[in-house]
Amino acid sequence: MNRAKRLRGYAWSALVVLLVPLLAHATPLSRAQLVALCADAEDQAQCGRLVEARQLRSVSRFVERDGDELRVQLSPFGLSVFHDSVNPTGATTYAVWDYLDNLDTLVLFTTRGERTGFLLVQRRGGEETRVPSEPVVSPDERHFVTADFCERACDDEVVLWRIAPNGIFKVATWRPPSAWSDVSVTWHGADAIALEYTLANESQPQTLERRLDDRSWQKTRGK
To answer: For a 10 Å CB count at each end of the chain, is N or C smaller?
Structure first.
């Protein structure tokens, strides 16, 4: 994901390509709409706020923005509060990005200095899970996948997560044998994913399919 402070021109378009897939679960914004919405954004945080302004309309019954404070009503009771702040290492911000209705889970776009990420908030119980890139949810909504690849400060791995009523759990990870960039994920049914990527020093994208039961996944425990 592009982490430059200025999201203009080519750099901004590249970021939009990575962010658009998540929006398929809420009121959809097309890539063109997202580019237009954030064309004059000064940075990632401002773009997040612009997206939030659109998404708040559909979640206003349990989400409220008051200046630098974002309040999320939990179910059946409780409150989670997120504060935007500025410190010597940069700004920390939160913005509503998506809502997964069937899972009753709010997706927040976050920034910490120049690093961006996502925070999933399960309204039933208030469980919070940080993920490095946009979650791509499986058709049966039992799993999602993240793919975090960039030149620096990324994990350079694909992660499979399991969604449960009592939390979100990291199931397995997979790393390619060589450097990848421009990685995107799509699901082929509920049991396989397709990874589109570009190898270093090449311009032609390639595609790799990986089943969830493939032995190359490295199993993990806990979160």
So the answer is: C
- Residue 72 near residue 82 (C-beta atoms within 8 A): yes
The string of pLDDT tens digits covering residues 142-158 is 999 999 998 888 999 99
CA angle 101, 130, 189 (to 5 degrees): 50
In one letter, which amino acid is 75?
S
Instruction: Record the pTM.
Output: 0.84
Please provide the DSSP assignment of 111-145 as one string. Answer: EETTEEEEEEEETBT--EEEESS--EE-TTSSEEE
CA–CA gap between residue 157 and residue 81 (Å, rounded) = 31
How far is it, in rounded angstroms, from Cα 112 to Cα 89?
8
The dihedral built from the CA positions of residue 24, 38, 148 and 74, taken in this order, carries a sign that is negative
Within 8 A by CB and 6+ apart from 179, the residues are 156, 199, 200
**DSSP 8-state symbol, 41:** -
> Strand locations in 32-125, DSSP E?
63-66, 69-73, 79-83, 85-87, 90-100, 105-112, 115-122
Encoded tokens for 178: 């060589």
Distance, in Å, from the CA atom of 150 to the CA atom of 171, rounded to the nearest integer, reads 22
Classify strands 69-73 and 79-83 as parallel, antiparallel or unpaired. Answer: antiparallel
Query: Cα-flanking dihedrals φ and ψ of residue 33, to 5°?
Result: -65, -40
Predicted confidence band of residue 96 (pLDDT cuts 50, 70, 90): very high
